[in-house]
Amino acid sequence: MYSRIIGTGRYLPERILTNLDLEKMVDTSDEWIRTRTGISERHIAAEGETTSDLAYHAAVEAIAAADVAAETIDMIVVGTSTPDLIFPNVGCLLQERLGIAGCPAFSLETACSGFIYALAVADQFVRTGQARRPLVIGAETMSRIIDWTDRETCVLFGDGAGAVVLDAAEAPGIIYSKLGADGRYRKLLETDGGISNPPEAGQRAALHMKGNEVFKVAVRTLERMVDEVLEANDLKQGEIDWFVPHQANLRIIAATAKRLDIPMERVVLTVAEHGNTSAASVPMALDTGIRDGRIKRGDLLLLEAFGGGFTWGASLIRY
Ligand code: UT7
User: Fold this and answer.
1) How many CB atoms sit inside 10 A of residue 100's CB?
2) Least CB-packed of 75, 124, 131, 231 within 10 Å?
């Protein structure tokens, strides 16, 4: 048994923060942000709007697109590093709002690779017959862990959620998943506090990144990973129909696309309008490409992500 995608959805909070807005907050410029990252604007959750709120809207849209009853969902897997609460996990909060009690619901925290990890996990449950119709989400409120005085990070991130409904099928679907991690790089991209290691009294945990060093490892790792995915599946450069990358930086995306020998017209890009939404970026890009009609049934897709940990992953999919 395999899994295939039967519906996708996304949700972006209403408020848009532009590069020009950021010029008034920190010492930066629209020109610097656009040329170094490709980002023009990002969405920011409203006060009181949580990760599970964003995830809920994306899930409702994906379930409607799949044209199935919510009650037929038999597993919820959420990739997020910005959960509403320590527990219940975002999957359980979502399950309650969807009114589908009973099925397993959990979150996993692998930063920007959260959705790729969640998709691989859900796929394994379908392959072993333990689930037939998982709901897989990537959702983040990155704005809550941003230091809004740090120009090196605050210009990069945004909030959002993307969702996918999978269904058991005779043929793939998800052809191949590749996951990896290297904790030796933990200091290059991390938050300065959590639960068992809290930030100083009165402070909230904030994200810190040595951007330039992350950039170099990201490009190297993603190039190696896409080579491995092609080789493991007996594919040649140029045989992928659509590349759906994590949207951290246009220059990283362009380097990986070059390695795949895929023209930029065949890359789904949302980085300009969404910024880096961590685990939400890949499913939102996927939904964008499907809804605007570019990605068609039968197309061969390569999804990838790289993020804090470091963690990384790829998914080869026949849509
Ligand atoms: O999603 C998880 C993984 N994350 C990523 O993949 C992000 C990877 N990294 C990047 O995308 C890029 O490294 C950044 C966009 C973060 C930075 O771009 P860069 O080309 O690597 O720039 P840099 O860090 O080498 O900084 C160049 C200059 C520095 O000034 P000096 O030292 O040359 O005088 C920075 O202080 O740009 C300066 N700078 C800024 N200037 C204006 C850094 N941030 C800003 C800013 N506005 N916001």
Assistant:
1) 19
2) 231
Which residues have C-beta atoms less than 6 Å from ligand 1?
A: 28, 32, 36-37, 112, 151-152, 155, 211-212, 214-215, 218, 248-249, 252, 276, 306-307
Residue 213, Cβ neighbours under 10 Å: how many? 13
User: Does residue 197 carry a catalytic annotation?
Assistant: no
Q: Helices (H) and strands (E) in the chain — how many of each?
A: 10, 13
Ligand 1 centroid distance, CA of 107 (Å): 31
pTM given for the model = 0.98
- Which of 89, 112, 154, 274 is flagged as catalytic? 112
Residue with tokens 């590069």, as numbered in its chain: 19
pLDDT at 160: 98
Nearest residue (by CA) to ligand 1, atom 11, is: 249
Which positions of the chain have pLDDT values less than 50?
A: none
Cα-based distances in Å from 230 to 226, 268, 305: 6, 19, 16
The two tokens of residue 203 are 């402070």
CA of 180 to the centre of ligand 1 (A): 25
- Asked if residue 147 lies in contact with residue 155, where contact means CB atoms within 8 angstroms, the answer is no
Residue from 154, 246, 249, 274 carrying the catalytic annotation: 246
So what's the pLDDT on residue 202? 87
d(CA 139, ligand 1 centre) in Å: 25
Phi/psi of residue 5, each to 5°?
A: -85, 125
Query: Percent of the chain scored above 90 by pLDDT?
Result: 98
Q: Where are the beta strands (DSSP E) in the chain?
A: 2-11, 15-18, 41-44, 75-79, 105-108, 134-141, 159-169, 174-181, 189-191, 207-209, 242-245, 300-307, 311-318
Q: Among the atoms of ligand 1, which is closest to the Cα of residue 276? A: 1
Q: Are 135 and 165 in contact (CB under 8 A)?
A: yes
